[in-house]
Each structure stands twice: as structure tokens, then as C-alpha cells.
Amino acid sequence: MKKVITYGSFDLFHEGHYKLLKRAKELGDYLIVGVTTEHFDYSRGKLNLIDPIMTRIENVRATGFADEIIVEDHEGQKIEDIQRYNIDIFTVGSDWTGKFDYLNAYCKVIYLERTPDISSTIIRHGRGQLIRIGIIGTGRVAPRFFEESSYVSGAEVVAAYNPDVDSAMEFNEKYKLPTYVDNFEKFLDKIDAVYIASPNETHAEYVRRSLMAGKHVLCEKPMTFTYDEALELYTFAKLHGLRLMEGIRAAYLPAFQQILAVAKNGSIGRVVGIDATFTRLPAIGSREQCDYKYSGAFLEYGCYGMLPIFKILGTDYEDVEIKSILGDSGIDIFTEIHFQYSGALATAKAGAGVKSEGALIIAGTQGYIYVPAPWWMADSFEVRHEDPNIVERYRSEFKGDGFRYEIAEFISKINGVGQSDYKLTAGESKEMAKVIEQFMKLRKKNQGD
Ligand code: C2G
Fold first, then answer.
1. What is the pLDDT of residues 388-421, one digit of tens each?
2. For residue 118, which atom of ligand 1 is closest to its CA?
3. Pocket of ligand 1 (CB under 6 A)
4. Same domain for 65 and 210?
5. Domain that residue 264 falls in
6. CATH label of the domain that carries residue 353
7. How many whole angstroms from 222 Cα to the centroid of ligand 1?
8. Most buried residue among 51, 130, 421, 435 by CB atoms closer than 10 A?
9. pLDDT, tens only, 62-115
10. Which of 81, 112, 143 is the last residue of a domain?
11. Which residue, among 191, 188, 189, 158, has the nearest Cα to 176 in the 3D structure?
């Protein structure tokens, strides 16, 4: 009996999948189909599956070609499966040509011609699920957003906007993207959603104008400088069925989700302390060092430190105190935010022009979680105990610079997949705005405005 195996996500099951399975079955007598888990697809950078695994398995089963269906959930599994099931032929579509040649050491590898003109992306398009994104602000992060979004299926950056003509033209030339400098309404006409990466003080107004035009919004932090403004914008978005998300990158990384889970599952007992530090030495003359009104250590990096604190201890703190060290221009180069909870203390430290260890430490009654620098880009962490010989190590890698997970979350929320905003809730974002408001008052006082 000739045994054949093939694998795939089989999302939004279509004719290309059907034909592939049919021909795979014809290669032998017994066909095993491996359907990928969401977690595995996530780890190989294939983000934004629409159908849950049970649906995808059912769709494969319904073709009648599979004699057996298995689940693929980790790298290296193909070699194990081929040996375990005594496979004669491994097959996959021609989009993978060459990629699986290493399996020739275990069985015969056949690449079947891919069915042209059909894919899950095209289907999304047909269903109106391809989200056209416009970038507002073509500064330092815009190119990264543009590049990382290409890994998120269902997302396409189609236009950019920047009233600063020089910056707009530079971006336009480099990325060959229509870039508007004055006609904001025309820019909005071309898109379904915006990513706002303009100067901090312009965020809230762009959010407001975009929401009022019926666009979903992903906005760089800090979104607003006051609680009331954050409340107004989130309320408006909710009322109009629009997605509004604050872009605090760390919140969306796979390892960060795992850190939160381990902090809450009892491994370190009850959490009593959190220390989160984020520092950078920005280039001389950069916004972080010069814009003493709307930039500086706290406004640029303070949200990062508040993130694990609010996620783990909640937003119901009893007291918050903010202290800054100011540089020559009156800008804060180092700021500490102390939170007092009933039963816990937490500190977020932010430095711009001051460098420290960017670690995250979560202290509990039975041990602590240590996330090495840079914790906001974590791909591993440890759980440590009194006995230094007992260490549990966790790894959860991310692809690219991690941006794509934030974009993927935005897109899937727009598409109604994973409705809940548990990774960074509107409530948490509003509470951050409340602390920012307090900081801005302090800044005004310090700067004698
Ligand atoms: N396919 C095809 N024609 C299309 C689209 C897809 O023949 N128009 C094939 C793919 O080449 C693959 C199978 O259908 O063999 C499943 O495709 P996907 O669901 O996109 O899965 P994929 O990401 O290719 O996973 O471990 C997983 C495997 O590496 C393949």
C-alpha cells in the first residue's frame, strides 16, 4: 500500500485546496492530511487565519479524499510523521517547490502544480475582507509598518498622508505609494482603516477625523493626553461599530501573552511587585530629546512600562506617583511611575538619553518571572525560585520585528475574528491616558507654563 501525506492550513477552503487533495490521493492508496493549528501557523508567521481548526478539518474531511486527518502543531513534525506512518510520498503545492527537498532523505517528495488564480487572499478580497490601510505620518515607523504589513494576509497599505511635503515625497518615491500632502478627504476615500504614526500631539485629532469618516483606527501611543479625550474617542468608535486600537507593540507579541499567563497561573504565587524598564539613547537632535512639550522619556516609553503592570495588577490602583529627572531643555530624560495597589507595588521606568537594563521583573510570593532586555521584544523568559537550580525557561519566538502581530490583531478585529480586545483593552488604554494626563500637569508645572 502506497501512503501519501500532505499538509496545509486549508483556510477558507477553496478549489485550489480541493484539487490539491484530489491529486494527492491519486498519487497513492492512502492519504494522510495534516491540518495546521493556529499556534503553529502563528509561529511560522502565517497570521490571521479566519476559520477555526475544527472548520478547516471538517472541510478537508468533506472532500472524501483524506483517509486520515492529523494535526500539525510544531516545526519538525513532518519528519516524525513520515517515519511514524511509514510514508512513501510527501506532497505539497508548487508554491513550496524546493522548500521540502530535505524530506527526500525519508520519502519521495512531489510538488503538485498549484491551481492558478485562487487563494484565501483572493477570497477575502471578494468578501470585502481585504482591508485597505492608509498611513498617516511618514516618519521613522511608517516604513516598518509598510514592510511588516506585507506579512499579514488581509491587509494592504494603499496610501499615505503627510502634510510635510518633503517627508511625503521621500516616502512616495521610496515605496511607490500614493502619498497625499493636503487633501485628507481624498486620502480617506481610498481606504478602510488608518495607521496613525504622526507626531504625538496630532494623534487625537487624526483619530477623531478618521473615525468620523467611518475608518477603523490603529494609533501609535500615546493616543491622547487626557482621559476624557480617550473616553470620547473609544465611545465614538464603539457607537459606530469601528475598531480603535492603541499601538503598544509589546501587547501583541506571542511571548508577552505567555508571560501574562505564567504570571497569573500560580507559578510564582501571588504577584506582589512589578518592575518594568524601557530606556533608549535616541539620536542627538531627535524628537525624543528636543520636543520638550510632546515627547521625552515618559511620553515615548511610559506606556510600555504601564502595560505589564495594568495587565497583571489591573487598573484599580490606590495611588500613583510620577517623578522625573529633567534634561537641559526641560524635557524629562528619566521618569519613574510608582503604583501602589492593595497588596502590590509596581514601578515603570522610562529613559530617553539614559540607559539602563531593560528588564521586566514580576515578583511573587513563590518566585519571580525574569524577562531579559529588551522585555518589550521578548522571545524568552524564565521563572526563578529561591533555589537557583530550579529555573523554568520559556521560549516563544516572533517573526520580523514583531510589528506584524499588532497589525494582524487590528485586521482580525476589523474582520470580526476574535472580537474581544483582551490584549489591550479600551479600559486599559483609557487608564494610561489618565496617567499621561497627570504627567502633563506635572510637566506644565515643572516647565513653568
Ligand atoms: N494550494 C494549491 N493551489 C492554490 C492554493 C493552495 O494547490 N491555489 C495548495 C498549497 O500549495 C498547499 C495546500 O493547497 O499544498 C494547502 O495550502 P495552504 O492552506 O495555503 O497551506 P500552506 O500554508 O501551503 O501549508 O505545514 C504546512 C504546509 O507547509 C503547507
1. 999 999 998 888 888 999 999 999 889 876 667 8
2. 8
3. 7-11, 16-17, 20, 36, 46, 72, 92-93, 95-96, 114-115, 118-119
4. no
5. 254-397+419-447
6. 3.30.360.10
7. 40
8. 435
9. 999 999 999 999 999 999 999 999 999 999 999 999 999 999 999 999 999 999
10. 112
11. 158
| Ligand 1 binding pocket mutation candidate from 6, 9, 27 (most atoms within 8 A of CB) | 9
Number of helices (H) and strands (E), helices first, in the chain?
15, 19
List the Cα angle 326/278/431 in 5-degree steps.
85
Tell whether 283 and 332 lie within a shared domain. yes
Length reported for the chain: 449
The single-letter code of the amino acid at 85 is Y
Using CA atoms, how far apart are residues 132 and 228, in angstroms rounded to an integer? 30
AA letter at 101: D
Residues 365 and 338 grouped into a single domain: yes
Cα of 335 vs centre of ligand 1, distance in Å, is 50
How many CA atoms lie less than 13 Å away from 244 in the CB half-sphere? 31
- Say if residue 136 is in the same domain as residue 198: yes
Check whether residue 88 and residue 179 sit in a common domain.
Answer: no
One domain, residues 54 and 203: no
Residues 100 and 146 in one domain: no
